[in-house]
Amino acid sequence: MAAAHIIPCLFNQFSNDDCSDEGHEAALTWDMLRSWTSIDIDRLTGSNINTPANGIYMTTVELRAFGRFKFYFDKDAFPTTPNKYKVRMLAAGRVLSNGQDSTDVEFRALPGIEPPHPDYLRIYAAFAKVLHLCGAVDLMDRYNQSNQGGTILPIHPTEDFEAQLSAKLAIVAL
């Protein structure tokens, strides 16, 4: 079992002086969250990102899939039940570690420990759906596997991953 950030910790690891690619991507992501959502970004800055409201405890198998936007928590399945969600896999034929392509989950508050924030889960679900629909998840998988010596045909070294991802996102926006 392992803990996962809903809004990834990587997005929070930059400074105004950070000119690296990772710092630039993190800054763009924060700008996206600030512009496209109504969440209070300041609630997630610095050490605040490491709170139970931004965390989920799950198996290591699910942790890897969650980090790659392979599934999301669907609140619409249980609109009247607080903290209850349906976990939905995005890719056909993929299953959770229980062998199913979906399952019901209810997060319970413990004394002094809040359940995951519904807005963070909603934002994650939106990102996962968009990244899946535009093919970016598959592109990320190809990229990750090519860097790890995987069996999938790698992205050609001269191809620009960011340009490919931007092009795929632009097609979905049309």
Short description:
With 174 residues, the protein is of the alpha+beta class. Helix content is 37%, strand content 13%.
Q: Can you give a write-up of this model?
A:
The chain is globular, with a radius of gyration of 17 Å. The protein is an alpha+beta fold and 174 residues long. The protein folds into 2 domains: 132 residues, no CATH class; 41 residues, no CATH class. The termini are far apart. Helix 4 runs antiparallel to helix 5.
How are the secondary structure elements laid out?
Layout: E1 2-5, H1 21-36, E2 55-58, H2 60-67, E3 71-74, E4 84-89, E5 102-106, H3 118-133, H4 136-147, H5 161-173
Antiparallel strand pairs: 1-2, 3-4, 4-5
The arrangement of helices and strands along the chain is EHEHEEEHHH
User: Order of strands side by side in the largest beta sheet?
Assistant: 3-4-5
Rg for CA atoms: 17 Å
Mean pLDDT: 78
Q: Could you tell me the strand content as a percent range?
A: 5-15%
Please, how many helices?
5
The shape, in one word, is globular
Intertermini distance: 40 Å
Largest sheet: 3 strands, antiparallel
Low-confidence stretches: 151-158
Structural class of the helix and strand makeup?
A: alpha+beta
Number of β-strand runs = 5
- How many domains would you count in the coordinates? 2
**What percent of the residues sit in helical stretches (DSSP H or I)?**
25-40%
